[in-house]
Amino acid sequence: MRKSLLVSGIWKALVVIALGGAAYGLSLSSPEVQKGSEQGVIMSLPETVGSFQGEDQEVSESERVILPEDTEFARKMYRDTSGDQINAQIVLAGGEKRSIHRPEICLPAQGWNIKTGQAVPMTLNDGTELDVMRLDIARPVEVQPGVHKELRSIFLYWFVGKNMTTPHHWQRLAHANWDRVLHNINHRWAYIVVSAPVLEGFSPNGKGHAETEEMLKTFLRELAPQIMSPEVRASLPRADAAGS
To answer: HSE of 79 in the Cβ direction (CA atoms, 13 Å)?
Structure first.
């Protein structure tokens, strides 16, 4: 099993390297790569999702300093009447590749430890199938002077191109390089993330891990079709087609 995973990882790396090398070679003899204008996301999060009401959140100064000026953001904190909360955000790349990156890179810098990560399939409310990356993360928090507890959180994200989605960073890079090689265009990729803390033991009636995950998935099933373009949604397989 370990050997097959290693071989799979090597092949993924080779695909990215090969496409990157081809893109670089082509760039030496072709016009400057055009900045992408096409995008697969709608940069406006809805005011309500199910029983949750959203409130706009400011982008931190550190994010604005680190990321290119043409990076776009949409971010809301959603809350319901029972006190549950979900954070949702969209980050849309501008002309530079470094506008977006894997959350696995920035989460440890924010003090989070990544416990597990895997791609999971989901059936959205419009009947389409979407694969997302699920991360289980944790970090210690001080609940009273000198006393720390581990706070866990669940993080669901996926990347969106002009007419495709993927939960895998290496696939996004491969397709981005392919666009540069064949079409001489750097399309605007985005990533969408929804997350929620596991508040059992931290607040009255706080949900456990399984309840928090199901709450997030229910939220995502309704949110995702509203913020992806018709072209992207048309590219997704339908759940009812699997058995036909």
So the answer is: 7
